[in-house]
Design a protein that fits this description.
Order of helices and strands: EHEHEHEHEHHEHHHE
CATH architecture: 3-Layer(aba) Sandwich
Largest sheet: 7 strands, parallel
Number of helices: 9
Number of domains: 1
Structural class: alpha/beta
Shape: globular
Number of strands: 7
Bound molecules: nicotinamide-adenine-dinucleotide
Length: about 240
């Protein structure tokens, strides 16, 4: 059997990078993409040291043409796509009444449309294979909403609904589609939060620590594994118990 292949978006750093490394440790061939051209190339090189093939591509997930090219190159290199992880995401936080149209559009474009673009392109391949797993990185904010994050909350709520619709459409072809909802994870995205906001999050977390990218990567790997073959359309919280 040919080696399994995973595509991870927004994987130059942070949670996406940890997910790609996890799949590398599991022996997958890796394709990572990101808008950060140099960083994605450097990260792919690092992952290659695990002894797997790793391809790093500069791709903006909001652009369907670039996404189609990503999957064409993946098929040309490895011949299949077993797992897609839709991880690329951004924030543009501000209060609703101050939010500019471009703050709204940018976040919806990357987090929601980007997930749609990659899911559509991967689904065409996985439907022919009659097997595949798609894992979307949502957020607890997409479940509970958050002050200053109307755009981000709407995008992640949309990702959760997209996950369920895709699970219903693709299930008969042997494809599972699930989402994870991380809470407060220490990455570049959260390092700019004020000490007060970080403490307020910690007060809400029964496990009394922030999450790590590896905490997320382990659950994503499980959802893409044969052990999770009868799980689809679900949203698994990875938040130390923050939202229950
Ligand atoms: N850090 C957290 O606390 C947290 C919590 C819940 C959910 N998440 C989600 O996890 C995912 C990863 O976040 P992170 O914390 O690692 O943040 P991060 O900013 O470190 O990583 C996000 C990556 O996505 C890339 N990216 C941005 N726009 C892109 C585009 N148009 N096309 C391709 N790549 C693009 C960035 O360059 C970056 O490398 C995001 O979807 C985020 O919303 C994070």
């Amino acid at each position: 059997m040919s080696q399994k292949v995973v595509v991870v978006t927004g994987a130059a750093r942070g949670i996406g990078r940890a997910i790609a490394e996890k799949f590398g440790q599991l022996g997958f061939n890796i394709v990572i993409c990101d808008v950060e051209k140099d960083l994605v190339a450097a990260t792919a090189k690092e992952i290659g040291k695990l002894g797997v093939k790793a391809l790093g591509m500069k791709v903006d997930v909001t652009q369907m043409v670039e996404v189609e090219n990503l999957f064409e190159k993946t098929i040309a290199a490895y011949g299949r796509v077993d797992v897609l992880v839709n991880n690329a995401g951004i924030t543009r936080d501000t209060l609703l009444i101050r939010m500019q149209e471009n703050d709204w559009d940018a976040v919806i474009a990357v987090n929601l449309k980007g997930t749609f673009n990659c899911t559509k392109a991967a689904a065409k391949i996985m439907m022919k294979q009659r097997t595949g797993a798609i894992v979307n990185i949502a957020s607890v904010v997409g479940v509970m909403g958050n002050v200053g994050q109307a755009n981000y909350a709407a995008s992640k709520g949309g990702v959760i609904s997209l996950t369920k619709s895709a699970a219903k459409e693709l299930g008969s072809r042997g494809i599972t589609v699930n989402a994870v909802a991380p809470g407060y994870i220490e990455t570049d995205m959260t390092k700019t939060l004020s000490a007060e906001v970080k403490q307020a999050f910690l007060n809400l977390i029964p496990l009394k620590r922030p999450g790590t990218p590896e905490d997320v990567a382990d659950v994503v790997a499980f959802l893409a594994s044969p052990a999770a073959r009868y799980i689809s359309g679900q949203v698994i919280h990875i938040d130390g118990g923050m939202v229950m």
